[in-house]
Amino acid sequence: MPNSRSDRDLSHMLERLDFDDPFHVVHPSHRRACTGLGRPLTEFETRRRVESLLSRNRRICSFKGGGVYDHYVPAHVAEIAGRNEFYTSYTPYQPEVSQGLLQTLFEYQSMMAEIVGMPVVNASMYDWSTALGESALMCNRVTGRTDMLVPASLSPQRREVLSTYASSARINVRYVPVDDATGQIRAESVAELISDDTAGVYLENPNYYGIFEGEAPDIVELAHKHGARAVVGVDPLACGVIKPPGAYGADIVVGEAAHLGNPVNFGGPLLGVFAVKDDRALLRTTPGRLIGLTEDADGVPGYVMTLQTREQHIRRQRATSNICTNEALCAVACAAYLASLGKRGFVELARVLMANAAYAATAIDAVDGFDAPVHDGIHFREFVVRSRIPWNEVESCLNENGITGGIPVDDDRSLFCITDKHTRDDIDRLCSVLGGI
Amino acid sequence: MFHQARHDERTVFELSSPGRRGLKVPAAWGKCPDVPENLRRDDPPELPEMSVREVVRHYVVLSQMNYGVDSGIYPLGSCTMKFNPKLGEAMAASDHVMSHHPHEAPTFVQGNLAIMHELAAMLACISGTDVVTLQPAAGAHAEFLGAKIIDAFHRGNGDERDEMLVPDTAHGTNPASSAMAGFKVVEIPSGPDGQVDIDALRAAVGSRTAGLMLTNPNTLGIYEERIGAIAGIVHDAGGLLYYDGANLNALIGQATPGDMGFDIVHFNLHKTFSTPHGGGGPGAGAIGVKSFLKEYLPAPLVVQSGDEYALSYDIPKSVGRVRQHHGNFAVMVRAYAYLLSLGSEIGDVSYRAVVNSNYLMTLLKDEFEVPFITKTPHRMHEFVVSCEKIRGDTGVTALDIARRLLDYGVHAPTVYFPQVVKEALMIEPTETEEPEMLEAFADILIRVKQECYDDPDMVKGAPYNTARRKLDLYKATKTPVISWMMRER
After folding, report:
1. What residues contact residue A432 under an 8 Å CB cut-off, 6+ apart?
2. Closest-approach residue (CA) in chain A for B6
3. Which of A42, A161, A327 sits opposite B324 (nearest CB)?
4. Residue in B with minimal Cα distance to A422
């Protein structure tokens, strides 16, 4: 029946085999040909079909972020991640033939380590939210305690994923209230909730509203004072301007790094960051792949997956996580991007985003009927805008002009984001449309 | 003879030169606000300083020290390392795929939603399930979601069931995912025919049984012929059946897990549906469920009304999201293109995969011990040989043999898995290799076996022709150096 290959190949093989039907072991009632998939298409027909569907998308100028940032991907970064030696390989189970990928992932881990100020970064998680979920499980494992304190400003999706992960381990997620004026959590609010049951305290810097948490170092200290672990979530780029979480004592850092070298891809794949400090208890219970330096039989430096006894293929139900397939290729692109941006470029880009977000907020604030930023704090690249009329009415006007606003926060507020793809004209046009409402 | 490129390429940190730079950064439109002093970063992160030219050359040099499916046969068992059609890469590189934010309203992303909707429908058809979610990022992630759904289903019925049954041949992710979802794992032994021991299963099921996670064919490449009985036993005990789709390449388009009695089926788009493995990821998982479980799926689902697509969040009993956004969309596009190109001839894939696997086994079975072959002669898309006798005779292990294979320019099979076979080599040639390649691979494996007897020390010292000689795993574990920062200390 197969006709995609020459029948000669098939009969050549079948001659040596003692069956005619490869599926003779399957009970006839379980046999079913898949007839509902239509006629096979040629490559050109397939391309036309996919392109015709995709053309139903509409191009727009968007101000959405919330952890997914539409940054420019330099051509050479895409080309490096497009090397088929990289993308057609799998998890480097045979390190001697996989040195290219292993060294690249080691470099990703190393550069991300410099950025977040933590010596141990794994080779990737699915996204920020699952990294957060895993961090809660890890706090629970290393402390034997049950409560996870997280800011009430957590993005709705991250909140939901955390709950999915935490509920099975019977971890209670408790929400630290946010100060309305500053959009930040206070150490004293954490102090009211923290107890001997607290496994971990989580904060984001900047937080979901794009604001730096001014009391982050105090909150980390408070967590430690109560024997809890401190977890900090980051957009790594923000570590170009603020102290890395490692510098103020975080035990675990999670975050999202897809925008450093990867397109947004409608939200997937992303690149979850997971980092821990050099603490034996944490290192040995970290989820995910870790690439380590070693040497070969001739004493030449080389790289391998290490500490594998933590992982599911060896430890099974006692593994630190079930993760197997990760987002390695996104980490490859991230490594190429970070190496190209370099020490100075990284800080400059962070400062440019911060300056441009401040410019945009000021410009929007100048439009009658809009306040920006709503919160009194130092913002990185995102800020909340409040409208005097319901936000969905604002959104309709923007949409008519080829713009989509931020991510809705509630009825009259929206979270706006600036990336390196926005121009000053985009902001001027946005303000002019807002002014016309 | 094969010789992999061998460069003494230094790290980006060593290639760095102060003041050198690659990318230009856009201009600021104003002043950067001051960061509060207690948070200000005084020293920039120690990233390398390189030109774009240096970066490109560095990673091209590194890529030359990497082996992929495009380099040669990659018969890694249970990983389905098949050829990745280049059209998939071209489609995923479309600006429409790459540049839309996941929070955009459906009206702006009708094309993306249409692809997701059509892909989900195709997967439902292939698996014999009713509703498919594309949210999980990987196979293990899908298993976690499946286990959560099983848990929610029983709780919804006021039924406390805390045991997940997992055969001893299962992928490691099955017990790990079950444990993450809060289950106690009960291992079911295999019988002398390499299939689930029905008596042991009967003895294990009970009022605490939440479900059974099963791979069919199992990791020995053996089809579980008693699947009808297995499903009956588990269902009669009140449990659900979960299908681990890692081995779906053996059955696609020929048989449907849904018809076998599975209630939840997962798919690895990066295995069965030809999307690249990316050096470990991104892949994409997906889950199909029978209609009685659809109310537990994570939101949102893509729904169609007329010619328009929308996102439905109306799933009141949902177990909750397992990740942000819609799943690995760029991977879905590739899988969709693959399915369009195959259409109703999708059954050719598994037909060829099973013929290839059995042909390769036939070329090897006189030279290597194939466990369970007397009682169960047929294999599906993969098979396992044991090097136990070789080890006993010569002291050479399965891992030594795997490393020696690399010297001949082929990738090694999966080693030491499944754990029920001693000194296992798990071989999955996939449907995309030609007979000549299978014959060449068999010749290499037989030659390496001969080398074990002729010169065991030489084999134990392998590999010789790869970018690095045998790497010291013990040293890496004993004094972990996970980053440049740790090396410098």
Report:
1. none
2. A99
3. A161
4. B26
Residues B140 and B269 in one domain: yes
Instruction: Please indicate, yes or no, whether residues B331 and B370 belong to a single structural domain of this protein.
Output: no
Contact B215, B171 (CB under 8 A): yes
Look at B47 and A111 and tell me if their CB atoms are within 8 Å.
yes
CB pairs under 8 A between A and B: 691
A2 pLDDT band, cuts 50/70/90, is very low
Is the full-model pTM beyond 0.90?
Answer: yes
CATH architecture group of domain A75-336: 3-Layer(aba) Sandwich (3.40)
Chain A residue at shortest CA distance from B414: A93
Q: Are residues B185 and B128 in the same domain?
A: yes
Range of the domain at B218: 88-345
Q: Is there a contact between B281 and A269 if contact means CB atoms under 8 Å apart? A: yes
User: Are B100 and B28 members of one domain?
Assistant: no
- In CATH terms, the superfamily for domain A61-71+342-435 is Aspartate Aminotransferase, domain 1 (3.90.1150.10)
Of A58, A97, A289, the CB nearest to B466: A97
- Chain A residues whose CB is inside 8 A of the B243 CB are none
Residue at B226 is within a domain = yes
Rounded mean pLDDT of B82-95?
A: 97
Domain boundaries, chain A: 61-71+342-435, 75-336
What pLDDT does residue A310 have? Answer: 83
Amino acid A1: pLDDT? 43
Task: Measure B12 CA to nearest chain A CA, in Å.
Answer: 7
Q: Is B406 in the same domain as B280? A: no
Token pair, residue B122, equals 């195709």
d(CA A293, CA B9): 14
Beta strands in B189-281 (DSSP E): 209-214, 240-243, 264-268
A356 contacts B282? CB cut-off 8 A: no
ipTM: 0.98
Partners of A114 on chain B (C-beta within 8 Å) are 45-47, 484-485
Q: Same domain for B355 and B452?
A: yes
Contact A89 B107 (CB under 8 A): no
